[in-house]
Amino acid sequence: MSSNESTKLLWTAVGAAIAGAGVAVAVLKYSPARYSAPKDEEPSFPPLHQKRTSFIYENNASSSNSVIFPHNHEERMRRQITARAAVEEDNFMPRDSVTVRVPATSANMGPGYDTIGMAVDLWSEVTVERADTFEITAEGEGATEMPKDETNYMVIGCKAAFEAANKPLPILKYHVFSRVPFARGLGSSSAAIVAGIIAGLILAGHRLPCWGSEALLQIAAGIEGHPDNVAPVIYGGIQVGIHNGTRWVTERVPCPAGLQLVMFIPDFIGKTSDARSVLQPTISREDAAYNISRVAFLVHALCVGNLDNLKWGVEDRLHQPQRGGKLYKYLYPMIEAAENAGAACAYLSGAGPTVMAITAGASGDIFAQREKERSDLAVAKAMRQAAKEFGVQGQVVVTNVSNEGARVVKVVPPFSTGGITYRDNI
Ligand SMILES: Nc1ncnc2c1ncn2[C@@H]1O[C@H](COP(=O)(O)OP(=O)(O)O)[C@@H](O)[C@H]1O
Ligand SMILES: N[C@@H](CCOP(=O)(O)O)C(=O)O
């Protein structure tokens, strides 16, 4: 290399270093990290109904083009929310009518009492509309049994939504087409609560903060008292929820593909409140350790897709032995029969009386699989036989886990406008 070339290289390097330092200073000075909330403090945003195109970048030093550090998830979310909110601004006006679909859920999954729950591919559809007189009509599961007055959870959910919106509850009429078995341990109450809240929010034209506060979850779990049903109704999949001392927090647990759910649903009703009252108020350290180990095993088995470990993972000493002993004598014999017939595991769904067996199919829809690849039929037969031996009448329903939670399927006036069409043209 000539001395000329090396001098040129030296100056290029010096120039690059100065430019780099300049960028670094600019980045540090204007980095969005400077505007993030102090540690341990929730970032406070203006009310969500306010025009938001300005609130994130009120301080002009930070523009939407400024650098986001890889770890700065919060800033990235704020920008995404801002962009989306600008598009959706028009959609937050009060509505006349809304229809929401909500899934059944299977809580506890054995040892995860009041903590773990799974969305089940069985859906109810709730329509709430403004009316001159209050009315509740229902068809399908529990149509005659569910309350038709203000104690109905759809109404309680709707009321909570209007309270959150700080608006008086208008006169509304409710219609539910229910496919979630009523008071059978498949989360009919949580489905009604979540449907009511979502419908109420949309009718009121109010939206709740999601990221960082999950306000919908707070309201729903506040009404239900535990998050194991409402979290999967809202978010779908398998959810593990806690209360962190300040608020409810839920996380999705990965769900292995191709699971089938084989449910024995007795013909009789089992109210959750009754099934909670048979539980002992305290448990031994040994039983606590037992349940901790099983929950850990369950979550691990789901995460790595090790279905062989599920049968250990669903074992429990917190509620199943008491409920099985006092209310559902068929429970353990049915679990054994299902597992012997090829189920990966079986447990009491929620507070019962339904027993849930999980079987592993090949990939694709079960109706497109050869019988050899499916164990749901053998498991269903074994569960029915066990029920017969105990004189319990009921039906077996086979379905899947739903990775999706509650969704709005119709709104009047619609969200879709000439310019933007939302899915299903809602
Ligand atoms: N819209 C509704 N759908 C189902 N149950 C409701 C509804 N509104 C109120 N309930 C009450 O909730 C109870 C059913 O909930 P629960 O006992 O927890 O069973 P599940 O396992 O189905 O959630 C019943 O006593 C019923 O009166
Ligand atoms: N953790 C609760 C779950 C109740 O579920 P449900 O579907 O029976 O309402 C309990 O075990 O009590």
UniProtKB/TrEMBL annotation:
A GO cellular-component term linked to this record: chloroplast
Keyword set, alphabetical order: Amino-acid biosynthesis, ATP-binding, Kinase, Nucleotide-binding, Threonine biosynthesis, Transferase
Reactions catalysed according to its record: L-homoserine + ATP = O-phospho-L-homoserine + ADP + H(+)
Ranges where the GHMP kinase C-terminal domain occurs: 300-371
Localization annotation: Plastid, Chloroplast
A biological process term (GO) from this entry: threonine biosynthetic process
Enzyme class: transferase
InterPro entries, per the entry: GHMP_kinase_C_dom, GHMP_kinase_C_sf, GHMP_kinase_N_dom, GHMP_knse_ATP-bd_CS, Homoserine_kinase, Ribosomal_Su5_D2-typ_SF, Ribsml_uS5_D2-typ_fold_subgr
Keyword ATP-binding: yes
Pathway assigned in UniProt: Amino-acid biosynthesis; L-threonine biosynthesis; L-threonine from L-aspartate: step 4/5
A Pfam family hit: GHMP_kinases_N
HAMAP family: Homoser_kinase (MF_00384)
Family to which this protein belongs: Belongs to the GHMP kinase family. Homoserine kinase subfamily.
Protein known as: Homoserine kinase
Organism: Phaeodactylum tricornutum (strain CCAP 1055/1)
Phylogenetic placement of the source organism: Eukaryota, Sar, Stramenopiles, Ochrophyta, Bacillariophyta
